[in-house]
Amino acid sequence: MASTQMLSLLAVFVAAAAIPLATAENFTVGDDNGWLPDVNYTTWAQGKVFRIGDNLIFNYIAGAHNVIVVGGDEFKLCNVSAGRAPKVFSSGDDVVPLQTTGKKWYFCGIADHCSRGQKLVIDVLPAAVSPAPSPAPFVNPSSPPASPPPGPVTPAPSANPPSPPAPPSSSWRIATDVSMMMAVAAAAAAIVMA
Ligand SMILES: *[C@@H]1O[C@H](CO)[C@@H](O)[C@H](O)[C@H]1NC(C)=O
Ligand SMILES: *[C@@H]1O[C@H](CO)[C@@H](O)[C@H](O)[C@H]1NC(C)=O
Ligand SMILES: *[C@@H]1O[C@H](CO)[C@@H](O)[C@H](O)[C@H]1NC(C)=O
After folding, report:
1. Ligand 3 within 6 A of CB of 79
2. Which of 70, 73, 92, 183 is least surrounded, with the fewest CB atoms within 10 Å of its CB?
C-alpha cells in the first residue's frame, strides 16, 4: 500500500521534472539576411515574441556594420544624442541579451545604414512562466505586478501525465504520512505478536 503510493508520488515528481522549463530563445536578427541595410526589420520582428532571457544575435561582417543600443528618439532620427556614449556591439557575431521589459531600439551607426533601414525596434515581455509547480517565476521588480503574461501564450506542453491528477500536495503528504505511520504501526504490531 505504502509502496504503491510512494511509486505514484515518484511518478508525479518524474512527470513534473519532465515538463520542459521555458527555455530562452536566440533570435538571429534578419535570419539568413543577417544585419544589413535595405532589409525591413519591422517585417522580420512581426509576430515574434521577445522575452527577458532571450538573446538577439546580430550577424554581419565586422567593421562593415555595428549595433548601437539607442533610445526611441535617437532611433527616429538615426542619430545618437550629443554627449551620450551608448553601448555599441561590433564583433560581427553579437549576442545582445534581453534583460528588461519594454521597447528596445538598435541601429547601425555606420554611414547612412540606419536611414536605409538597418534599424530594429522590439518590445520585450517578461520571462515566460513555466507550468512546473516551482520555483516561483522571476519577477522583474521594476515591472508592474505580474499579471498573466501578456501576448500569445506559449502552447502549454500537455501538462497532465497519463496518471490520475495529483491531489493537492498537502493532503497528499498527509495521506502518505498516514500510510507510513500505519505501515510502521503494522510492523510494530507484527514484532509484538511474534
Ligand atoms: C544562444 O546563443 C548563445 C551564445 O551563442 C549560446 O551560448 C546559447 O547556448 C544559445 N542558446 C540557445 C537556446 O540556442
Ligand atoms: C517595413 O514593413 C512594414 C510592414 O511589415 C511597413 O509598414 C513599413 O513601411 C516597411 N518599411 C519600409 C522602410 O519599407
Ligand atoms: C546628430 O547628432 C549630432 C550630435 O551628436 C548633431 O550635431 C547632429 O546635428 C545630429 N544630426 C541630425 C541629422 O540630427
Report:
1. yes
2. 73
- Residue 46: strand, helix, or coil: coil
Tens of pLDDT along 32-52? 999 999 999 999 999 999 999
Instruction: State which CATH number among 2.60.40.420, 1.10.455.10, 3.30.43.10, 1.10.3720.10 fits the domain covering 21-125.
Output: 2.60.40.420
* Ligand that lies nearest to the alpha carbon of residue 86, given by its number in the listed order: 3
Q: Which of 70, 76, 79, 107 is the best mutation target for the ligand 3 pocket, counting ligand atoms within 8 Å of the beta carbon and taking the most?
A: 79
Taking each continuous run of H as one helix and of E as one strand, the counts in the chain are 4, 8
- Residues 91, 70: contact at Cβ < 8 Å? no
What is the biggest distance separating any 2 CA atoms in the chain, rounded to whole angstroms? 93
Q: Which atom of ligand 2 is nearest to the CA of 40?
A: 1
CA of 37 to the centre of ligand 3 (A): 20
CB distance 119 to 105 below 8 Å: yes
- Closest ligand to the CA of 74: 3
Cell match 534599424: residue? 119
- pLDDT digits 0-9 by tens, 61-94: 999 999 999 999 999 999 999 999 999 999 999 9
Burial 28-44 (b: 16+ CB within 10 A, else e): ebbeeebbbbebebeeb
